Amino acid sequence: MYGIGAIGVWKLVPYPMDPEENGAPPRSLREKLSGFDYGGIILATGGLTIFTFAITQANSLTNGWRSPTIISLLVLGVAFITAFCFYETYIPKNPLMPMSIWKYPGVALCMLISSCGWMAFNGITTYYCPLYFLKVVRVSPILATAYLTPYSIFGISVNIFAAFTLHRIPGRYLLIAGNLGYLGTSLIWALIPLGSNYWALPFPSMFLGVIGSDLAYNVGNIHILRSVSSKLQSSAAGMFNTNLQLSITVGLAASSAVVSTIVQNQDSASPELLLKGYHAGAWLAVGMSAVGLLMTPFLRIGLQGIDEKLPHDEV
């Protein structure tokens, strides 16, 4: 579906900066390919792949994080990522990740706040939520799917709300509301008792979580785009979304390590022991969301979605 959509956009959406329309001769395919940052692609892909593999596979090995394989891969992944940052700073003419983006006010802080919330919600609570229904409550997969339906309904509703309020309510307040949602859903899953009524705790936790993810994502994404010059917007958007995907991986790996210290064998564990482990993972989400909430007031975001000149277009 993504491929079909991409082809449709490529064929149907006009390019506003077509070289032929501006009087410049069209570039050949070879010229376009020669402008790619191949070194950055290799270093970024290699580093992120190795790092992600190491942190996600650590809990599956006998020695866990002390395994020589995991330690070696972590060191290698961090080395690749460090080399990528230095490479992007000094070598390519068209870097994959322009390091100047980090100099714009609020970009780094917005990335960090979004990362904390994404680790807590998408990396932890939304992962253990279906496991709670399947392994603790022990309902059928069909019923568990039905229990998770409010996520999509709330998601549509919150995005509609965001579309009508981003230009009316300052982004700082919406971002605070989003991070309060992250904290609220994390606290519910950290305190939920065995045999809790679905409508009493799991249902409102989904509403709070979606408030966090959809409000915070929209506000953060638009803020990143409006903070940089128009030439860097595509790179900034790519960095923002890559940061979120990495945050999910880190949050899931960290919570899995915490849960594994309490529940060594989740396949044969009792519902009581599983819930105790899930509580521990949820408390990690509480800490992450609390850190993001504490940083939010320091990020200056006003009204968004208003047609006006970007503040850094002259850069």
UniProtKB/TrEMBL annotation:
Pfam families with a match to the protein in the record: MFS_1
Ranges annotated as spanning the membrane: 36-58, 70-90, 102-121, 141-166, 173-192, 198-219, 240-262, 282-303
GO molecular function, one term: transmembrane transporter activity
Localization, UniProt: Membrane
GO cellular component, one term: membrane
Superkingdom of origin: Eukaryota
Alphabetized Gene3D superfamilies for the sequence: MFS general substrate transporter like domains
Major localization class: membrane
Keyword Transmembrane helix: yes
Membrane topology: Multi-pass membrane protein
Keywords: Membrane, Transmembrane, Transmembrane helix
Name of the protein in its database record: Uncharacterized protein
Organism of origin: Sugiyamaella lignohabitans
